[in-house]
Design brief:
The protein is an alpha/beta fold. 37% of the residues lie in helices and 26% in strands. α1 packs across α10 (274-288). Residues 144-243 form the GFO/IDH/MocA-like oxidoreductase domain. Residues 3-121 form the Gfo/Idh/MocA-like oxidoreductase N-terminal domain.
């Protein structure tokens, strides 16, 4: 079986998916749409796909088996529901939206349609993250510390809180998702955000330049995340997990794992490519008709989104928010 793929949105993240798909047998990218015609034309030249005039034209079940929806979170409209209603399998980039109630309704529609669905939390597919999850299974965690520092996205939509949700919702979502994946569900969050630098440098930017989020887990563990998208001279992302008899550290965006306990002190670097493993799993799922290879379903993406949006709500309300 050759899996025929359509793309809606072919910006930077989509390019990573396309490069991965081109390395997989039995895959053909047949149609693409992007509001930027030059981007769409470049992908068509690279893949042999046809450029179509609208997103709806991509969602033609007579032409494609699956679609990659890589539009920004503010520009999804009802693409997922339309695709699912037409029996088209879904890969959707994170984050899934900016309104948890809207995304929850979409999740129900997708689930009831019975299509294969995957959300772009690619770091779950790293062998280091898998080993961390396996190690923590059954172990008692009491403290989690995480951070993500780096630069801002150049696009205007990314720098507007109302269209991106901010750095936490759009990027630090990967760290939130990894914490959920290896340690369990969040219970409550309380967030503080700041704009002290953006107010001086560029008041037209409405996202926060820094954030500090404290949280509790359903297990009883506590933790915090600090983040900034205005850190041009230092970029890093880590998760540290503390137990009474161990220390676990996922650094370099999950690509390096350290485990220290009474029997070992090891540090390992991933041997796989997250985007390729993610794409491969999605194609395997479509061919087999089974959701099993997928590590992040639409429902999982919804849960991670709920945590980040709860943090935004916490800051607005100046209150602790239950997830």
């Amino acid at each position: 079986m050759t899996v025929k793929i359509g793309f809606i949105g072919v910006g930077g993240i989509a390019q990573l998916h396309i490069d991965s798909l081109l390395r997989i047998n039995d895959v053909k990218i047949v149609s693409v749409f992007d509001v930027n015609g030059e981007n769409a034309a470049a992908v068509a030249a690279k893949t042999g796909a046809e450029v179509v005039a609208t997103a709806d034209q991509v969602l033609d079940p007579s032409r494609i088996d699956a679609v990659f929806i890589c539009t920004p979170q503010f520009a999804r409209e009802d693409l997922e529901e339309v695709a699912a209603g037409r029996g088209i399998h879904l890969f959707v980039e994170k984050p899934l939206g900016l309104d948890v109630d809207v995304v929850r309704k979409k999740e129900q529609t997708i689930r009831e349609a019975g299509v294969i669905q995957s959300v772009g939390y690619c770091l779950r597919y790293l062998d280091t993250v898998q080993k961390a999850k396996a190690y923590l299974a059954g172990r008692s965690v009491h403290l989690i510390q995480a951070f993500r520092f780096g630069g801002a996205h150049p696009a205007r939509w990314w720098n507007r809180l109302e269209t991106s949700g901010g750095h936490l919702v759009d990027a630090v979502t990967h760290q939130i998702d990894m914490i959920r994946y290896i340690s369990g569900e969040f219970s409550e969050v309380e967030a503080k955000f700041g704009r002290v630098s953006f107010e001086k440098l560029n008041p037209d930017v409405t996202i926060y330049d820094a954030g500090a989020i404290t949280f509790t887990m359903e297990s009883g563990a506590v933790g915090n995340i600090t983040e900034s998208c205005l850190s041009p001279h230092y970029s890093a992302s880590d998760i540290k997990v503390f137990g009474p008899d161990f220390f676990l550290h996922l650094s370099n965006n999950g690509h390096t794992l350290t485990i220290i306990d009474s029997t070992q002190n090891i540090t390992e670097t991933t041997k796989v490519e997250a985007y390729f493993e993610q794409s491969k799993a999605f194609i395997e799922a479509v061919i087999s008709g089974s959701q099993a290879p997928i590590l992040s379903s639409y429902a999982e993406g919804l849960q991670t989104l709920a945590v980040t949006l709860a943090a935004n709500k916490s800051f607005e309300a100046r209150a602790t928010i239950s997830v």
